[in-house]
Write a structure and sequence with these properties.
By secondary structure, the protein is an all-alpha fold. The chain has a domain of 37 residues. It is built from three helices and no strands. It is extended and about 60 Å long. The relative contact order is 0.06. The N terminus is likely disordered.
């Protein structure tokens, strides 16, 4: 039984509507392979890249910004707003040149 206060004043015996999820199997039955592409790769390079990315997401390393010449790529990044790397680079620029960059 649920307490009346937690239901925003509804009577305690009123059933609560809950979302119904489709069984996983029905979702898998609807899955369709859109295409397949074979390509050559270096297993060593792929493993190193995955290790590097996992280290970022598990907090074992700090994010690495792009080269200053490539900051035009930042507009596509979902983390552009509040990016610590961009803020650090702006402060470095300001300390070297005395020119303040806003944004």
């Amino acid at each position: 039984m649920v307490k009346q206060e937690s239901l925003g004043g509804q009577a305690p015996d009123t059933p609560i509507a809950r979302p119904v999820a489709l069984p996983l199997q029905s979702k898998l039955d609807e899955a369709v392979i859109l295409g397949c592409h074979r390509f050559s790769y270096s297993e060593t390079q792929v493993d190193a890249h995955i290790d590097k990315m996992l280290a970022l997401w598990t907090g074992d390393r700090e994010p690495i910004g792009v080269d200053v010449e490539d900051v035009n790529r930042c507009w596509r990044c979902p983390y552009e707003e509040g990016c610590e790397w961009r803020e650090m680079k702006a402060k470095e620029f300001t300390s070297k040149t005395g020119v303040h960059i806003s944004g």
